[in-house]
């Protein structure tokens, strides 16, 4: 059992959780951590972000725990879709990456917290309960990064730039970088091949890139796919 004290049993309400990670062994381990708590229950599991969104449509959920790096849709992409689909749903990012860029993208996308897999047995239960209290959960290194980023922006009088790409362009970029053809992308996103080609042209123009290889390198750099 976790040493984090759960709510008093008289007030106990089960928190229904969607768990998404593309590694079955990771899901099993995380589920063991969560399901041993009397107020936490994993009611659905997904292997990628797109499956997580499909499951959210058919399940009553309070909380989603998403890995960041997944095929088809990343956790960062999925959190935007999930919060639009279910405005009351809280989302935690669970990741192996102690990475400031991922951390800030997760907060911007609407995540309630950012938990490292390396300390999930220590932090995840507390993070789930904090999210349900509408309290952010940040690991110590993330708090340092947040303060440093804020002080840097204040010092230079700058705000973080708005996202360059639209969510649809980001989806196309990820699939292009994963090696899918225009027809495969069109089938996956339910759009025409011509629309896919237009998005690719827009991506190259916006990012100042020349070809698929440079798009792939960019997607790796911003965390859409893993190298």
From TrEMBL:
Domain HTH luxR-type: 158-223
UniProt-recorded name of the protein: DNA-binding response regulator, NarL/FixJ family, contains REC and HTH domains
An individual GO BP term: regulation of DNA-templated transcription
Residues the record lists as 4-aspartylphosphate modifications: 67
Keyword Repeat included in the entry's annotation: no
Pfam families: GerE, Response_reg
Keyword Plastid annotated: no
PROSITE patterns registered for this protein in UniProt: HTH_LUXR_1, HTH_LUXR_2, RESPONSE_REGULATORY
Any GO MF annotation of the entry: DNA binding
InterPro entries given in the database record: CheY-like_superfamily, NreC/VraR/RcsB-like_REC, Sig_transdc_resp-reg_C-effctor, Sig_transdc_resp-reg_receiver, Tscrpt_reg_LuxR_C, WalR-like
Origin species: Streptomyces indicus
Keywords: DNA-binding, Phosphoprotein, Transcription, Transcription regulation
Domain Response regulatory: 16-132
């Amino acid at each position: 059992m976790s040493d984090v004290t759960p709510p008093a049993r008289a007030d106990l309400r089960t928190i229904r959780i969607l768990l998404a990670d593309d590694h079955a062994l990771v899901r099993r381990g995380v589920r063991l951590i969560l399901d041993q708590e009397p107020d936490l229950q994993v009611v659905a599991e997904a292997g990628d972000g797109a499956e997580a969104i499909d499951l959210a449509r058919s399940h009553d959920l309070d909380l989603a725990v998403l890995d960041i790096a997944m095929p088809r849709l990343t956790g960062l992409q999925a959190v935007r879709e999930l919060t639009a689909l279910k405005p009351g749903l809280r989302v935690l990012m669970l990741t192996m990456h102690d990475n400031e860029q991922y951390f800030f993208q997760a907060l911007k996308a609407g995540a309630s917290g950012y938990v490292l897999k390396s300390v999930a047995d220590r932090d995840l239960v507390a993070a789930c309960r904090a999210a349900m209290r509408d309290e952010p959960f940040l690991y110590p290194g993330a708090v340092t990064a947040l303060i440093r980023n804020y002080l840097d922006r204040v010092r230079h009088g700058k705000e973080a730039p708005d996202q360059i790409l639209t969510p649809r362009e980001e989806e196309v970029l990820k699939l292009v970088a994963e090696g899918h053809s225009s027809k495969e992308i069109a089938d996956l996103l339910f759009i025409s091949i011509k629309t896919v080609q237009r998005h690719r042209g827009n991506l190259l123009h916006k990012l100042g890139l020349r070809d698929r290889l440079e798009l792939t390198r960019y997607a790796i750099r911003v965390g859409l796919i893993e190298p």
